[in-house]
Write a structure and sequence with these properties.
11 helices; Cyt_c1_TM_anchor_C; Cytochrome Bc1 Complex, Chain D, domain 2; mainly alpha; 4 strands; binds heme C; mitochondrion; two-stranded antiparallel sheet
Length: 329
């Protein structure tokens, strides 16, 4: 009888009284070999020896990880860390600075001014492969403006019925024209340095928009002792300090349509806003969807908590009473 009851008890508790690790439930169970070993000093000493030994082995192979390492590089090799600027599109609830232009109002905004800086300054050296004219519609310009801008540029098309390639004015579906035909031409025009495509630049560089802004506004004279090779320029934000691109932005370089004073920092801010948009045109939509998902999921969570409370209420409030049968003597 006693055996049957102990089986029942263990079934209720979900443990087997004869299992090695059930000492808390059944004092009668024998102490297992592992449990005994773990509690002995010998194991602690052996484990310490193993950890000291592996540490010594690692140090012999790779050097002591606790000592500062001597590196053949300086902080300047990584470039100066750019400060964090308060971009208008930075926060989770912020959008790009673009008031959607319409046919009757051309919505002056930072992306539009930034496009102007790209077109008038950067596009002489940098391509913008991933942006088509149509992408600008409703973002920085209205459709008629974009059509006019595209038509000013000749694109090669064809072949025609005679098998000849021909030139035609640009269309909304064309991509931004590149300044050079190929990489070799680009390098040849820039003393061997390749101006990178700017479509994804604000995502492709550590520091993103802050870095590109700091780079454009950060040209200074090299500090004493720093030698800059002929044809390179000193910029502390560029890893290594010597960059193939010279300072390109100077106060008053462009004339903004909306009359904004074109200072160096204003142009840098606008072109970086434009390039951030080019890297991530879906940013506004992404944040909007994120907010929608948060609202829907928190509402569903709140509802499921109420449903859970409703369903479990009767079970949680129920009291179970066990009256053992009176023992007969
Ligand atoms: C005269 C040609 C020229 C013009 C104009 C020019 N760049 Fe450059 N740019 C270069 C070259 C060349 C490099 C490559 C530098 C190197 O690798 O040393 C470069 C590199 C860059 C880089 C990459 C830096 C890095 O971390 O690799 C950025 C960003 C950049 N330019 C932005 C701009 C912007 C924005 C403008 C317009 C305001 C502009 N550039 C105008 C020639 C130019």
């Amino acid at each position: 009888m006693a055996g049957r009851f102990s089986f029942l008890r263990s079934a209720l508790k979900g443990t087997n009284p004869t299992a090695p690790f059930s000492r808390s439930h059944s004092t009668a169970a024998p102490q297992s070999a592992i449990a005994r070993a773990a509690s002995s000093n010998r194991t602690a000493v052996a484990l310490s020896a193993v950890s000291v030994g592996t540490f010594a082995w690692y140090s012999a192979l790779y050097g002591n990880p606790l000592l500062p390492e001597a590196k053949a590089e300086s902080a300047a090799d990584h470039g100066l860390h750019p400060p964090a600027y308060p971009w208008s599109h930075k926060g989770p609830f912020e959008t790009f600075d673009h008031a959607a232009p319409t046919l009757i109002w051309n919505g002056f905004n930072s992306i539009r001014r930034g496009y102007q800086v790209y077109r008038e300054v950067c596009s002489t050296c940098h391509s913008l492969d991933r942006i088509a004219w149509r992408n600008l519609v409703g973002v920085s310009h209205n459709v008629n403006e974009v059509k006019t801008m595209a038509e000013e540029i000749e694109y090669e098309d064809g072949p025609d019925a005679e098998g000849q390639m021909f030139q035609r004015p640009g269309k909304l579906s064309d991509y931004m024209p590149a300044p050079y035909a190929n990489e070799e031409a680009a390098r040849a025009g820039n003393a061997g340095a390749l101006p990178p495509d700017l479509s994804l630049i604000s995502k492709a560089r550590h520091g993103g928009a802050d870095y590109v802004y700091s780079l454009l506004t950060g040209y200074v004279d090299p500090p004493p002792g720093v030698e800059i090779r002929e044809g390179l320029n000193y910029n502390p934000y560029f890893p290594g300090g010597a960059i193939g691109m010279a300072r390109v932005l100077y106060d008053g370089l462009v004339e903004y349509d909306d009359g904004t004073p074109a200072t160096t920092s204003q142009m840098a801010k606008d072109v970086v806003t434009f390039l951030s948009w080019a890297s991530e045109p879906e940013l506004d939509e992404r944040k909007k969807m994120g907010l929608q998902a948060t609202i829907i999921l928190t509402s569903l969570l709140a509802m499921s908590i109420w449903v859970k409370k409703f369903k479990w209420g009767p079970l949680k409030a129920r009291k179970l009473v066990y009256n053992p049968p009176a023992t007969k003597h």
